[in-house]
Write a structure and sequence with these properties.
- The chain is α/β, with parallel strands linked by helices and about 130 residues long.
- The protein has helices at about 25-35, 55-70, 85-90, 105-125; strands spanning about 5, 10-15, 20, 45, 55, 75-80, 100.
- It has a single domain, classed as Transcription Regulator spoIIAA (2-Layer Sandwich).
- About 45% of the residues lie in helices and about 20% in strands.
- Helix 1 (about 25-35) runs parallel beside helix 2 (about 55-70).
């Protein structure tokens, strides 16, 4: 799977270059995304602007991965989802589980807000 990787100061934007994310790409996608949980900058924005179709298994994997990231207090935002892809997530009843934004810029804002929220909540733990 070809993926454009854009590393920012607080997060990484991953943009699949594929027009179709098929079920047989699921393991590769999962391994790529999970590799970020052990990095200094574990927050992910998954930009799906190039993806025109996605198999249900891949959609389910993305939803599960997002939950795994949030359980570890890492951000995981999906942005720029095409209508056809959004419909697949909706039919699988996964769309409401995802943290999605229409634009990458809005995804950046959410990552930054979540960062502030984590810092604020850490203050209560002490």
């Amino acid at each position: 799977m070809n993926v454009k990787i854009d590393t920012k100061e607080k997060f990484t934007v991953l943009t699949p270059e594929e027009q179709h994310i098929s079920a047989n790409m699921t393991e590769e996608l999962q391994n790529l995304l999970l590799s970020y949980t052990s990095k200094d900058n574990p927050h992910i924005i998954l930009n799906l602007k190039n993806v025109k179709a996605i198999d249900i298994q891949a959609a389910e994997t993305i939803a599960v991965l997002q939950q795994q990231f949030y359980e570890k207090s890492f951000s995981f935002i999906v942005c720029e989802m095409q209508t056809e892809v959004e419909e697949i997530f909706e039919k699988a009843e996964l769309l409401e589980e995802l943290n999605t934004t229409p634009t990458e810029s809005e995804a950046w804002d959410i990552v930054q807000m979540e960062e502030i929220e984590r810092e604020f909540m850490d203050g209560f733990d002490e």
